[in-house]
Amino acid sequence: MGEKRKPDDWNAKSQKKKKFKVSSGFLDPGTSGIYATCSRRHERQAAQELQLLFEEKLQQMYGDMKDGEGESGDNEEEEELSIEDQIKRELREIKGEDSSKDSSSGGMKRKDPLAFIDLNCECVTFCKTRKPIVPEEFVLDIMKDLADPKNMVKRTRYVQKLTPITYSCNAKMEQLIKLANLVIGPHFHDPSKVKTGYKFAVEVTRRNFNTIERMDIINQVVKLVNKEGSEFNHTVNLKDYDKLILVECFKSNIGMCVVDGDYKTKYRKYNVQQIYESKFQKNDGEDVK
Known about the structure:
By secondary structure, this protein is of the alpha+beta class. The protein is built from 8 helices and 9 strands.
């Protein structure tokens, strides 16, 4: 009797393992996307909520991208992507990988602009994005919709905070420097776009990460913003900033983006739950009056 039950028990355990094994839980260098924190043990439900929200916003911002549509801007993007491609090639050379392979693809189909990745990390999920999506612009547009006082429909139940990632790299200081120069350049060093004297801050979040110390990351990024010979005279201000540099460290990956000051003041650090609560409390107060 014991021999007959043993295979059944083994099959049941095997099925359970297969059921919950979705991905390796790692992000490749060069990845762009959006981190999302969520309620504990509701990572999949949060991803499902975001899938609907993101696809709706994708359609609204970029139109239909299926069956070859939405690729008219590919040629226009080639020049913008050239710097990014150089960074990716350098990253692959450092890792000793074949430069003919795109390490950022991660198995994501050419036509698929959104792909959710199970990070095997409690309370966190990640959505990998590809062009034409610009993660910081994409998330900001979503937050504008959610913060609109006229929009009282609660779209998510489990999602808490969204964090866009413009690009990412492996957890090495020399690659962090290349990544920072790529990400912060347009926001701090482009004469055609940048004003002098920005107040800025750096915020670092680390999950399952101990490769580089938090203050080493901050000091290096600040040094690159105020690089020697810079004419812009940007200054660090931790409370009242015009620009905030977000650095997300997860396992062997470092992601980065730059957001404006309203990230904190108007959009509550892109915390979806807090935005909902603020709107509903304000609405309840007006009803009482």
